[in-house]
Design a protein that fits this description.
The protein is built from 16 helices and 11 strands. The protein is α/β, with parallel strands linked by helices. The strands form 2 sheets. Strands 1-2-6-5-4-3-7-8-9 form a 9-stranded mixed β-sheet, with helices on both faces. Strands 10-11 form a two-stranded antiparallel sheet. Helix 14 packs across helix 15. It starts with 6 loop residues before the first helix and ends with a strand.
Length: 372
């Protein structure tokens, strides 16, 4: 339960907060006024009369039913209602243009105030993109950084899972915290909340509407010292998050990729606009020398390289040369045969060995792609 506000003040806050998402477009002027109020709130004592005054003539009715439902939810163990005036409210998030008036938090609320790095990217990510997101999230978490993302398919989910291997992660939802979206990530959300936190600004029961996600994105970037974009189309939610980060005065990092990959175009555009090009976790932590980061154990990337070398050693010289000749673009079995002069049977065996070892993966239209 919220420790920072009187229970009656919190109930009023929740009731008017819920009204924002249930009154519809006719309440646009009231919503604008309410947000301006949030930007000028000085303390809990002044908050309630200001909010009531703003809504007095708007015609928007407070949702007491949703407020009481939220209070009941917040009384459950590991559930927290954290208002903008609460001492547990993240300082960086309070600094953004429109801070969420209240956060619904499931899990360990204390991690909201820890140093965070956001990792976002395409829902339709490539295998290499997913591999990179998992690895860098794991490495950054090992440094003691909390990894923040949006629980979406693709890069977001990989970032969460990578972070869970070595540390803590926070998932920010675009719906009510009692309606995990996508539903297939119910188990992932539960795992995240056991060691980190799942959070939302939306009232309980709020569905995952399209316009909720740009709002969600400003929270992802607002919580973090910097945002990493792994893969993104030119116009996407990930680019939206990066733009929020830039507007909030936070660092923006982008991972380069193949010029032929449409999922790299957004990252390349960010780099052209001044985002820092990164290739590994060291490129990120080097920007935050003021943070007391942990010394991570032996790097995951080092173990990956050793494993890759052992796999290469199991191949013959001609197979290795043929594989290396294919580079990092998608390639076909016929290309390997052409470069090596090997038989189809030999190449098929080689590709199976590399796929089982996690060095390549099936790509589109019968092609393969290197992922390590």
């Amino acid at each position: 339960m919220d420790k920072g506000l009187d229970i009656d003040v919190l109930r009023h806050l929740l009731a008017y907060h819920a009204a924002l998402y249930t009154a519809g477009r006719t309440a646009a002027s009231a919503v604008s006024q309410y947000r301006q109020t949030l930007k000028t709130v000085a303390n809990g004592g002044a908050f309630l009369p200001r909010v009531i005054a703003r809504f007095g003539d708007s015609g928007v009715k407070p949702r007491w039913d949703l407020a009481d439902r939220a209070l009941k939810w917040g009384a459950t163990p590991s559930h927290h209602l954290i208002s903008v005036d609460d001492a547990r409210y993240p300082v960086l998030l309070r600094e953004i243009a429109v801070p969420p008036p209240v956060l619904f938090v499931a899990g360990a609320a204390e991690f909201l105030t820890h140093a965070q790095i956001a990792i976002v990217g395409s829902r339709n990510a490539t295998k290499p993109g997913c591999e990179f997101a998992t690895d860098i999230a794991c490495e950054l978490a090992a440094f003691g950084l909390v990894i923040t993302s949006g629980l979406a398919f693709g890069i977001d989910a990989c970032a969460h899972r990578g972070a869970l291997k070595a540390g803590v992660t926070i998932a920010v939802l675009g719906c009510g915290i009692d309606r995990i979206y996508p539903s297939r990530h119910q188990d992932l959300a539960m795992e995240i909340s056991r060691s980190g936190a799942v959070i939302s600004e939306f009232p309980l029961g709020a569905p995952p509407r399209k316009h909720h996600f740009p709002q969600r994105n400003r929270i992802i970037s607002g919580l973090a010292r910097g945002t990493i974009v792994v893969e993104a189309a030119s116009r996407s939610g990930s680019i939206s998050t990066a733009m929020h980060a830039a507007e909030q005065g936070r660092e923006v990092f982008a991972v380069p990729g193949s010029v032929r990959n449409p999922m790299s175009k957004g990252c390349h555009a960010l780099i052209a606009q001044g985002a820092k090009l990164i290739e590994c976790a060291a490129d990120v932590v080097g920007e935050f020398t003021d943070l007391p980061l942990a010394v991570p154990p032996a790097a995951t990337r080092t173990r990956t390289v050793v494993h890759a070398n052992s796999v290469a050693a199991s191949l013959g010289r001609r197979e290795t040369e043929a594989f290396e000749a294919c580079g990092w673009e998608p390639f076909t079995m016929d290309q390997i045969i052409f470069h090596s002069g090997l038989t189809a049977q030999d190449v098929s065996s080689m590709l199976l060995t590399l796929e089982l070892a996690g060095q390549i993966a099936m790509h589109a239209a019968g092609t393969y792609i290197r992922i390590r």
